[in-house]
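pasting for ref
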Amino acid sequence: MTMKINEKNLCAFASSATPVDRDGWLDMRGEVGKSYQKRWFVLKGNLLFYFDKKGDKEPVGVIILEGCTIELTEEEAYSFKISFQCEGGRTYYLCTNSQASMEAWMKALACASYDYMKLMVSDLQRQLDEAQAEAAAEAALVTITPPEEEPKVPPRGQRYNPFNRVPDGEPKAVQGSRHHKENLRPDMPRKRVPFRDIHTAYGRKILADRSEWRAKLSKQKEDTSKPLIQL
């Protein structure tokens, strides 16, 4: 297939401020000559320009990276080649100064073709479609959980007066429970105890405890006043 290239536009593109994918010094030779020549290479998209010197405005040549293969060679250390398998295709031999540089150049050149970019875009589109389908399937399985009912406040317990007596044989409710009032017979009148009687009952207990405490205290004083040794 014959392809016409506008050399003027190509030179302008080579020296323009468009983004550079990779650049650097490489040793290069063709199929005829066996000696390598150092060239400054600039990769922009699928176009590999090479110059005599870094900063030149016009390239010595350009390699269009379509329909080619990038392969290792055994001629020199850190060398590889760009081969075109079509009829009349050429082979370019390139050499770097390190293993890392060679691998980086080979990877950049292999990913520069339009066919590779189209394949990558197609694969990314497939991954996007799968992710969207998976997200839609997960959204369909999500069930809306109804809001939980607010907890009900338990009823307050009925206050219980311990001095309200229940006749023997009648069931007694637990003190402070809300069922206390319900368990008492409604026809049974409650006996109210005057405060004076309550005060007297508790006061007697307090006076008895106080008298007992004073007796113990006076006995301890008598014991401490006696000599430890009696002669």
